[in-house]
Write a structure and sequence with these properties.
Length: 344
């Protein structure tokens, strides 16, 4: 079946329904750089034409791997990267200020070995920086030809709306995309973020569609997490040991496994088919660490789930809900800093 390339919001760019996420390339995942390069080539050869990375992934190493992989193939892909997360201990090497944006983009261009970035994304909201300053700096990059389009990642719906209004009122470039977490186990974005994206014509690149591996079927009640799994490699940031969350997710994943078998699909393809069925979703970012993981996900863009299957999935996890609060991707500062919700 021919790949149904989709419009990336109003950017004029068309992208494949699956996007190659590269967070696992380098020190944070697969340290075999040659295999990572082969994975990029395999994905592009299969028809995947959008690649997502970030400066903070392995603190620059991942962008360097992607740049190496795209030598001679740069024009074949829509290349997306992100800025904003801390790049060391310096308080000015992070955030969404003009000072950092103008430095961060040059660093990313150098590591990626390219003259332009197709989609430059704000990695997280920055409550210390006025959104107009961020938009102003990004607008300059677009005018300079260093960036083709700009987007956000894990922005709450109200901040997406604020940014659209700020762009309109101040004559800035508009954010064209949003990158929220979205999977069968993490459906919070259905309540407000995805409708806001539809309202403003934003392209949507969802991340963690397999919920960190939960929807691959690798985690079971019968034993410990696999030795090479994210639950073991990144245990302090994974919910496998949180007993209540683990139990809830296992209840759902066991039911999903059965439903996938009934539908003649792998569990992975069912999970990816679920997120791609949402009308707001442009592309699902897959994050393979090995070639085998990549191969298990290729072709999921052909999956079309029947309405009765989607209805059964809705019964397993109610629309708009997350099974784990940690899957939200962003916690507003007033919820973690008491001084922001108490009068002095």
């Amino acid at each position: 079946m021919a790949i149904d390339y989709r419009s990336l919001g109003r950017t004029g760019m068309r992208v494949s329904p699956l996007c190659l996420g590269t967070m696992m390339f380098g020190a944070w995942g697969n340290t075999d750089q040659d295999e990572c390069v082969r994975m990029v080539h395999a994905a592009v050869d299969a028809g995947m034409n959008v690649i997502d990375t970030a400066d903070v992934y392995a603190f620059g190493e991942t962008e360097e791997i992607v740049g190496r992989a795209l030598r001679g193939r740069r024009d074949q892909v829509v290349l997306a990267t992100k800025f904003g997360n801390p790049m060391g201990g310096d308080p000015n090497r992070q955030g969404n200020s003009r000072r950092w944006i103008t430095r961060a983009v040059e660093d990313s261009l150098r590591r990626l070995g390219t003259d332009w970035i197709d989609l430059y994304q704000v990695h997280r909201p920055d409550p210390t920086t006025d959104i107009d300053e961020t938009l102003s700096a990004l607008s300059d990059l677009v005018r300079q030809g260093k960036v083709r389009a700009i987007g956000t990642s894990v922005f709450p719906a109200e901040q997406l709306v604020e940014a659209q209004w700020a762009s309109s009122l101040r004559g800035r470039e508009r954010f064209s995309t949003e990158q929220p977490p979205y999977s069968l186990l993490a459906r919070q974005s259905e309540a407000a973020v995805l409708p806001a994206c539809e309202r403003y014509g934003l392209g949507v690149l969802v991340f963690s569609p397999l919920n960190g591996g939960w929807l691959t079927g690798k985690y079971t009640r019968s034993g410990a997490a696999p030795a090479d799994s994210r639950a073991e490699r990144n245990a302090e940031h994974f919910d496998f040991r949180a007993q209540e969350v683990r139990s809830r997710k296992l209840d759902v994943t066991e039911a999903v496994r059965d439903l996938a078998a009934e539908s003649g699909l792998s569990m992975i393809h069912l999970a990816l088919g679920f997120v791609l069925a949402h009308p707001a979703v442009t592309s699902a970012i897959i994050g393979p660490r090995t070639m085998a993981q990549l191969e298990s996900q290729l072709g999921a863009w052909d999956v079309r789930l029947d309405p009765d299957v989607l209805d059964r999935l809705d019964k397993l996890v109610p629309p708009g809900t997350n099974l784990s609060p940690d899957d939200a991707g962003y916690t507003p500062p007033p919820l973690t800093d008491p001084s922001l919700r108490r009068r002095p």
